[in-house]
Amino acid sequence: MRALVSLAWGRLATALLLVFVHLNLAAALSVPRYSELEARTRADLDANTVRRELGSRLSPGTLIFGPSDGKFPAITARWNTFAPPQIQVVVQPASEADVAKIGDQVQYCNANGIDFLATNGGHGNSASLGTFTGVQISMAMLRTITIQPNKKSAWFQGGVYGGLVTKYLWERGFVTTTGSCDCVGLLGAALGGGHGRHEGLYGMVVDNLLQLNVVLGDGRAIRVSPTSNSDLLWGMKGAGHNFGIVTSFELNIFPRGPDTWHYHNYIWTGAQLERVFTSLNRLHNNGSTPVNMALNFGFFFMNTTVSTTDPILSWTFAYRGPANEAEALLAEFNAIPSVYNEQGDVPYNGVSKVQGNAEDDFICQKGNKRITTTAGLQVYNLTAERLIYNGFRARAISHPTLAAGAGILHEGYSTAGVGARNPADTAYPFRSDHHLMLFNGVIPPNDPVLEELAWEWANEVKDMWNAGQPTRTENNYVNYANGYEDLETVYGREPWRLARLRALKQKYDPQNKFRFYNPIVEPREGKGKGKGKGKGKGKRRSFQG
Ligand SMILES: Cc1cc2nc3c(=O)[nH]c(=O)nc-3n(C[C@H](O)[C@H](O)[C@H](O)COP(=O)(O)OP(=O)(O)OC[C@H]3O[C@@H](n4cnc5c(N)ncnc54)[C@H](O)[C@@H]3O)c2cc1C
Ligand SMILES: *[C@@H]1O[C@H](CO)[C@@H](O)[C@H](O)[C@H]1NC(C)=O
Ligand SMILES: *[C@@H]1O[C@H](CO)[C@@H](O)[C@H](O)[C@H]1NC(C)=O
Ligand SMILES: *[C@@H]1O[C@H](CO)[C@@H](O)[C@H](O)[C@H]1NC(C)=O
């Protein structure tokens, strides 16, 4: 649709929109007038044109290709196909020399009214991505890592991902903060905060970001550091997707620590739910998790070899250190009768495999249509978890296909290093959340009835999590958000947070070029149109485009 909007209509619509904005949205007065309606997508955009017009400005390594190229499906594949970006052409810089040319690509797109989107791992989940049509600037080949001479930090190019970084550093005697899933782009996670197995010790990824090289929406390349554009450094640490393309960044690294980590995986039946969550609450003690008890997470999901009606509780614990220390902390869990359990000791770069989130594991796989909701909790509420479990059980009986594709994820990091930071120091707003939740429902591509039921269920679970903490607010980690949440629940409720982000937006991206990943300034002030509130489907914000 958007590709067909004519220039004249664009101008008229802009004028109407401005009237609308001035009449209706006081907040909009502080936001610059964006011109994205005029920056229409070129209807005739194709790879040959782009290659002809842009190719000569880039180095020979850069690939430019469209849907007819054999490489296209893999490089545009998404973890969630619910609302994928519409990619017309892929530009893939392939070498160090090309990094400097990303500004040229941005300028070319701007001059031609083409929207652009930086991508890496393809795991971005937000439905706001579905409003994008244009050129994908694929960062995935930019993977150089350079450990600095003092061995306290390293420079990483914008296309590195968790598994690659972990492996590279471990083999050289180091670790750093990454996401926990090997397949996720390090920057994708980092720009929104970045939760991972070292956050108990060292804080989140944003807490270790020293400086970044960023290409802004007008094509200018800037350094963002404590001494250069330092105001933007705060914004990059939790809302970074809104401000630029990161070509490289410097991050703290640390000596790698113990040679092995201990893991213990369990499967329990639903009958043990109260015991499991009581023990989890005792282990985590409301944000006082032993620092080396790095990460446990568990799913409710169907394992039909155990039961066709009752979902299982499948939990995995990873401890930074030896078995005896870990097992002392897990004694309570060992006392809960399990259907299955296994344990062992592996080097850190093997932990993702035993916890089931390595690159080839199911959770990392792309190409599924998913319905998701999220929540941030402090402690688990046993009543809420029992209600959520029973809701799953009901679907296993009434809608087995829906139940078969669903997993209800509970994450418990050790969080000392997260809580130790001043919350005002980063745009990441939720340092008092200790548990990160995700409802993840995989549904068939063309089944509107099941899709509706999945949304109903996803919102029910989210509501139960939040009703289980009646004295706390609804928090949605930006990297788990589905894109339909209110901005305050994603970027923080303190009014100064969004105000500060909007001021940075006005200064560094006045044309709102970066508006496709949970945007702090929404396209065309789209809030006015059909932003429903309340239950079920109405909870979903309608994006234009
Ligand atoms: C299976 C799975 C596991 C996850 N595990 C974790 C976890 O352990 N910890 C955690 O914190 N989060 C986790 N997440 C959430 C994850 O952080 C986000 O989904 C993130 O956006 C993925 O980044 P990506 O590069 O893989 O995806 P992409 O879709 O390629 O990127 C997402 C967005 O990031 C931005 N972006 C990416 N690269 C750049 C760049 N170089 N410069 C500027 N912007 C860029 C773009 O706006 C893009 O739309 C997980 C998600 C999934 C699906
Ligand atoms: C958890 O700790 C916070 C303070 O960090 C406190 O406000 C809250 O009441 C505690 N919750 C429980 C259930 O103890
Ligand atoms: C399902 O349960 C069985 C134990 O009955 C276990 O061996 C198997 O690993 C489980 N599968 C998954 C995917 O959890
Ligand atoms: C637990 O959740 C229920 C609703 O599911 C709620 O009524 C109750 O107040 C919650 N308990 C605590 C301690 O917050």
UniProtKB/TrEMBL annotation:
Signal peptide range: 1-28
Basic residues compositional bias, start-end: 529-545
Keywords linked to the UniProt accession: FAD, Flavoprotein, Oxidoreductase, Signal
Membrane-spanning segments: none
Database matches in Pfam families: BBE, FAD_binding_4
Ranges for region Disordered: 519-545
Annotated FAD-binding PCMH-type domain residues: 82-256
PROSITE patterns for the chain: FAD_PCMH (PS51387)
Family: Belongs to the oxygen-dependent FAD-linked oxidoreductase family.
Protein name: FAD-binding PCMH-type domain-containing protein
